[in-house]
Design brief:
By secondary structure, the chain is of the alpha+beta class. The chain folds into 2 domains: 198 residues, Regulatory protein AraC (Jelly Rolls), CATH 2.60.120.280; 110 residues, Homeodomain-like (Arc Repressor Mutant, subunit A, Orthogonal Bundle). It is 39% helix and 22% strand. The relative contact order is 0.14.
């Protein structure tokens, strides 16, 4: 049996989980640090992704040991963890510190540049914050216990994808947000692929990828949110007893199976309503609701608005972009 838990997941299930992963809430900045300086980035509520484009120094994430920094080093920082970048001066003098809070705050969908030092930067990174989720409370990276650090190569082209994402944010053209999200998903898919072969076996830090039977049930839910799923059918899919499935699913994802299913259905409903090619009754059936009343009730509870009003708002925004 493979030592890497993710390799025990059926390829079809793993492909479904990666394909349906929704990347959102991207905030990107260029971080530049000169010799003899330290750039301190305070904790955020979302996971951070930090990719070193050039130069050498070190990363320090909260209480964990320093991480050597060289070109193409990538770090994913857990939520609520402080992060700083340090570059020693040749003279060995004490580092001077710049706090990120000294700069204008992040604005979703925009770019900023933060720098420490007034000489040519030794280290240049792209730093960002994101979510990668299946539902309102199911973020793949949100429950990481420790940072993920991987060394990539120029051939992996992660730097080009991140630079393209920055360029999209700067351009602010129609569709820039969608293009940025797509580029970020490419980055995350590359990282997840690496996890399957990493000697660090960091895939086991994802609770979902660490339990192949739960992953199989979740894969079926994300692939067929309209199916008549129940605890009984999902436990059968996972080859677990009802009680064991409930316990392991809730432990892995932090929410019950029916809660997760409802979130997935409501996410899919928003997508279908915005596309405007199906009637609301058809959308309801497409996400697993047999009648309009129960669909309206669930959608209103999830999003605070009726499906018809949500569609009207989405249509209004679309018309303004034309």
């Amino acid at each position: 049996m493979s030592k890497n838990p993710a390799k025990r997941i059926a390829p079809r299930d793993l492909d479904r989980l990666i394909t349906t992963l929704e990347v959102d809430f991207v905030m990107l900045s260029e971080c530049l640090v000169s010799p003899g300086w330290r750039l301190s980035l305070g904790p955020k509520d979302t996971p951070g992704i930090h990719y070193n484009l050039s130069g050498t120094g070190r990363m320090i994430v909260d209480k964990w040991p320093p991480i050597p920094l060289s070109p193409h080093t990538l770090a994913i920082v857990p939520p609520h963890a402080a992060f700083r970048i340090e570059v020693e001066h040749a003279s060995g003098s004490a580092l001077r510190t710049v706090e990120s809070k000294q700069f204008p705050p992040f604005e979703p969908g925009k770019i900023r540049r933060v720098s420490a030092g007034n000489s040519d930067p030794r280290v240049i990174l792209i730093c960002g914050y994101f979510s990668a989720s299946y539902g309102a409370s199911i973020d793949l990276f949100a429950r990481l216990p420790v940072p993920i650090v991987e060394k990539f190569d120029a051939a992996d082209q992660l730097d080009e994808k991140l630079k393209s994402a920055l360029a999209e944010l700067v351009a602010q053209e129609v569709g820039s947000g969608a293009m940025t999200m797509a580029l970020m998903k490419q980055v995350l898919v590359t990282i997840l692929r690496r996890s399957l072969n990493s000697t660090n076996l960091w895939a086991e830090r994802f609770a979902v990828l660490n339990d192949a039977q739960v992953a199989g049930a979740l894969s079926d839910m994300v692939a067929r949110p309209d199916a008549p799923h129940s605890i009984e059918t999902l436990s059968w899919t996972s080859a677990l007893s009802r009680s064991a499935f409930m316990l392991r699913f809730t432990k892995a994802l932090g929410a019950s199976p029916m809660t997760v299913l409802r979130q997935m259905r409501m996410r899919q409903a928003k997508i279908l309503l915005a596309v405007d090619s199906l009637s609301i009754d058809q959308v309801a059936r497409a996400v697993g609701y047999a009648n309009r009343t129960s669909f309206f009730r669930a959608f209103r509870k999830a999003h605070g608005i009726d499906p018809s009003d949500y569609r009207a708002n989405a249509r209004s925004i679309s018309d303004k972009l034309i």
